[in-house]
Amino acid sequence: MTDLTTGDLTTLSIAEAGRLMARGDLTSTALTQAFLARIETVDPALSSYVTVTADIALNAARQADMEMGGGLRRGPLHGIPVGLKDIYETAGVKTTGHSHLKIDYVPAIDAETVRRLKAGGAVILGKLGTHEFANGAMTPDQPFPPVRNPWNTAYQPGGSSSGSGAAVAAALCMGAMGSDTGGSIRNPAGFCAIAGIKPTYGLVSRCGIFPLSFSLDTAGPMAWTTEDCALMLDVLAGHDPNDQASARAPKVDYGASAQRPIKGMRIALARSWYEDSGAALSPDMAKAMEDAVRVMRDLGATVEDVTLPDIRDYHICGRVIITTEAHAIHRRDVIERPEKFGYTTRRRFQLGAFLSAEQYISALRFRRKLQQDTREAMRGYDLVMTPNQWGGPEIFEDPAPIFHFLGKPSLSMPFNVTGQPAASVCCGFGADGLPLAFQLAGRAFDEASVFAAGSAYERATPWRSHRPTL
């Protein structure tokens, strides 16, 4: 049993805290108070929260305690303190998108995911920093300071779910909601040494979440462990008639899938993406990747090199689609009120004006081919394994407005293009002490295999016991 007299409540996992509350050994109120106190002490150095809803959180925690004391158990998130990326609409609480354009916007109703979290008994601690409208970067002309990486505040936390990644890593919430259009859950998860999954496109409702790219946007959970992400997805997944892309998928016990053994699982290693693409992993990342492959084999999985389509094809296909759709969404504001945007966000949105309808349609058709070719390459395999990032996080500097087109191809973009579920799993730290991570991607709607493999790896390695020193 966790020693609650000396242990730090804020470093419990969701699974551990849930078991303690179910036994009556812990209250949600005590847990929530511990997080609120830690936010007040630690977050000034990180700026992960843009709004802390302390009174709302404490009321929800007391309600959870009353319900659990009366024998009502709403599920794995009952009484669990979580944070929301500030593009999730929250009734009566500002939802800013980290932008001057929405600085005073107070929604009347909750996003569907927020409604489900509350129905599951989760305690909402507040709203977390993001790249502006989940695009662009954090620049000095935006209304909130940039989120810092808790492993080293001189470094980026990754984006666009920056506050979500930093807050979970710094033990300022037990779980957080992010969004992923080209890697925006997995990038900060990897750079902050936490777990995060981009679910299958259509599995989790986007209703009430600020859009960036209708045909690629995905909402999903971020937490300290893969198992905790699975427990969050148990509450979040399900059809929503108000989201036109929402899928009707069979109900799955994701929490149970995180306990499955992976002996006999077949994993396709996308080595060509990071060895034959003209870009190179950092030496630390290359070693961590080989070590992770060895661990998976030791756990009984078969890991074999498989050739998938060129990583650059996915990258440019996804970038054309995102840039075109984002411009369509934000076009009027970019024309009429350009000064309201941060300069990087503005330029990235403006770039969409220079892409033609023909180029956009060609990218959509090319996406279909990439989906088919990826599915064919995965024939006979349960998962794809590849690095989550080229190396550790980058130091803070002025971001290049269109670097995302011209730099190294994104290792996360392929699974946005294909729509497959993909998770980031911490696989160690570089010589500089900064986090490294790999990805596991499954077939559409097979999050269960992703959770099984990610959780098995975490149990077999020491990385979940490493926390940043703040």
TrEMBL record:
This is Indoleacetamide hydrolase. Residues 31-450 form the Amidase domain. Signal peptide: none annotated. Hydrolyzes indole-3-acetamide (IAM) into indole-3-acetic acid (IAA). PROSITE patterns: AMIDASES. Pfam families: Amidase. It comes from Reyranella aquatilis. InterPro entries: Amidase, Amidase_CS, Amidase_dom, AS_sf.
